[in-house]
Amino acid sequence: MRFANKVVVVTGAASGFGRAAVRKFAGEGARIVAADIDADGLNALVDEMSGDGHTIIGVETDVTNGSAVQAMVDAGVAEFGTIDVLVNNAGAGHPPMFMHDMPEEQFDRIFDLNTKSVYLGVKAVTPVMIGNGGGVIINTASIGAKNPRLKSTPYNAAKGAVVVMTRGLAVDLARFKIRVNCVCPLASETGFFKTVTGKDRISDEARKTLESDVPLRRLTDPDDVANAILYLASNDAAFITGVSLDIDGGKSI
């Protein structure tokens, strides 16, 4: 119960890493503000978690829109009185392509979803955390930020910016007792995978090929990422800030 009575906001909460994080935080006593642009998925999550006795509200949120992100934070404060942890998890990839082939509007969208969303979340929640005497911000980056993949340069660059923002924010916000860290996961068979491959699931043969390049011989499970997020957000990591934690089974080595 490391998060008993703490208020945690998770973006991109309806699926993948965000959904796993919501379940983990709630299981350790947190009160949850779940945010996602997918209204149906969000409602299903809230119904499920409420039915299990957890305290949660859902806020339909476009994380690329400043007013929407501010409304998300305001909803959390109105419901629970404060916000202790923000997980900037929402983001998306793109089908494999060279950057010079990517339309400008698609490039902008990738940076809006993966980088600007972090700025907007930090901008909205920091005054609340300062007033509360501190807090924690966790950003979801990618192992591609450190080891760029072929035909993924825009996404890799957007997540690379998240790593740098995390380190800079850790210094800027330390005076306010706000810790800032990020996680850098290897790809997982979530909605992200469908975006970049165009398939609902990868074949067994393709999975074996991908896993053969990972020392621990498997892909990332959403719970792997959620467990790391919980650790970095908890008092167990009270002296850790500015860290980008690789969750990749050793692949980046």
Reported for the largest beta sheet, the result is:
7 strands, parallel
Architecture, according to CATH?
3-Layer(aba) Sandwich
The parts where pLDDT drops under 50 for at least 5 residues are: none
CATH superfamily: NAD(P)-binding Rossmann-like Domain
Percent strand equals 15-25%
Order of helices and strands: EHEHEHEHEHEHHHE
Class by alpha and beta content: alpha/beta
- What oligomeric state best describes the polypeptide chains here? single chain
CATH class: Alpha Beta
- Rounded to an integer, what's the Rg over CA atoms? 17 Å
Q: How helix-rich are the residues, as a percent range?
A: 40-55%
Count of extended strands: 7
Write a structural description:
This protein is globular. It has one domain (7-247): NAD(P)-binding Rossmann-like Domain (Rossmann fold, 3-Layer(aba) Sandwich). By secondary structure, the chain is α/β, with parallel strands linked by helices. It contains eight helices and seven strands, in the order βαβαβαβαβαβαααβ. It has helices spanning 16-27, 39-51, 66-80, 104-132, 153-173, 191-197, 204-211, 222-233, and strands at residues 7-11, 31-36, 56-60, 85-88, 135-140, 178-185, 244-247. Helix 1 packs across helix 8 and helix 4 (104-132) packs parallel to helix 5. The longest helix is centred in the middle third of the chain and has 29 residues, at 104-132.
